[in-house]
Amino acid sequence: MRKKDAPPRWDRRMQQRLARGEASALGELYDRFASLVHGLAHRVLGDEHAADTVTRDVFAHVWQHPDTYDPRQGPLRSWLAALTNRLAVERLRTTGTAALARGGPGTAEDLERKVRHASVAARADYIVQSMPAPLRAALELAYFQRRDYRQTAADLGVTDEEARRRLRLGLQLLATAHDAGAPGAPPGIGGAA
Predict the structure, then answer these.
(1) Which residues does 183 contact at the CB level (< 8 Å), separation at least 6?
(2) Higher model confidence: residue 183 or residue 73?
(3) Which of 59, 65, 123, 61 is nearest to 89 (CA)?
(4) Euclidean distance between CA atoms 100 and 98, whole angstroms
(5) DSSP track, 61-79
(6) CA distances from 188 to 56, 58, 95, 109, 121 (A)
(7) Any idea of the CA torsion for 183, 172, 109, 79, to the nearest 10 degrees?
(8) For residue 179, which phi and psi values (nearest 5 degrees)?
C-alpha cells in the first residue's frame, strides 16, 4: 500500500520528464489535459479565442517552468486547473480593466463581481468533472432529469440509502465551489484569486 502523502507515480514521472525537457512529455500532457484547461478557461472568459490563448499560455508556462509543479502538493490535474484559473482570471481582469479605462460600461465593482462569479463557476465545473462517476451520475439524474432519490436509486440500481448518500456527497462537494480554501480544493480556484 502506498503512503497517503506520496504523489501519484504518473504525475511525478511527468514532472521529471518535463524538467528534462522531453518534448514528448509536453505532447502527452497536452493530449491528456488540453480539454480540461480549455474548458476551464472558456468557463471563466466566455470567449473561444481567449480560451485558446490561455490554453497556449498554460502549456507554455508548464514547458518553460516545469519546476513550479511539486507533485507532493497535489495532483498535476489540480495544479493545471489552478494555473488555468489564475491565468484566465488575470486575463479577464486585464481586459475588463482596459475596457473600463476606455470608458466601457460598468464599474470596478461590477468587474470584481464578474471575476468572482466566473471563478466559482469554473471551480464548480472542475468539481463536477473530478468527482467519482457514481456521484456525478446521481447528480445528473437528480438535476437534469429531475429525479428524486428513489427514482435515482432505481435508475442506478442501488438502494434508496445509497442514492441519498451519493446525492448528499455530490452536493457537499459542489457546495465547496464558493469556498476559496476548501479542503482538497486545487489552490487558486474559487474566490477572486
Answers:
(1) 176
(2) 73
(3) 123
(4) 5
(5) HHHH-GGG--GGGS-HHHH
(6) 19, 14, 20, 21, 13
(7) 40
(8) -95, 110
- Grid coordinates given for 76: 498535476
Place of cell 451520475: 137
Report whether pLDDT(103) > 90.
no
> What type of residue sits at position 122?
A
Judge whether 50 and 41 are in contact, CB under 8 Å. Answer: yes
Cell match 490561455: residue? Answer: 54
pTM: 0.67
CA dist., res. 125 & res. 38, Å (int): 12
What are the grid coordinates assigned to 62, written together? 508548464
Q: Where are the alpha helices (DSSP H) in 46-186?
A: 48-64, 76-101, 108-130, 133-144, 149-156, 160-175
pLDDT at 73: 83
Q: Give the span between the Cα atoms of 135 and 20, in whole angstroms.
A: 38
Residue 28's SS3 state is helix
**Cβ contact 89:59 at 8 Å:** no
List the single range of 87-96, 98-107, 161-170 with lowest mean pLDDT: 98-107
Coil, strand, or helix at residue 121?
Answer: helix
Measure the N-to-C terminal CA separation of the chain; round to a whole number of Å: 36
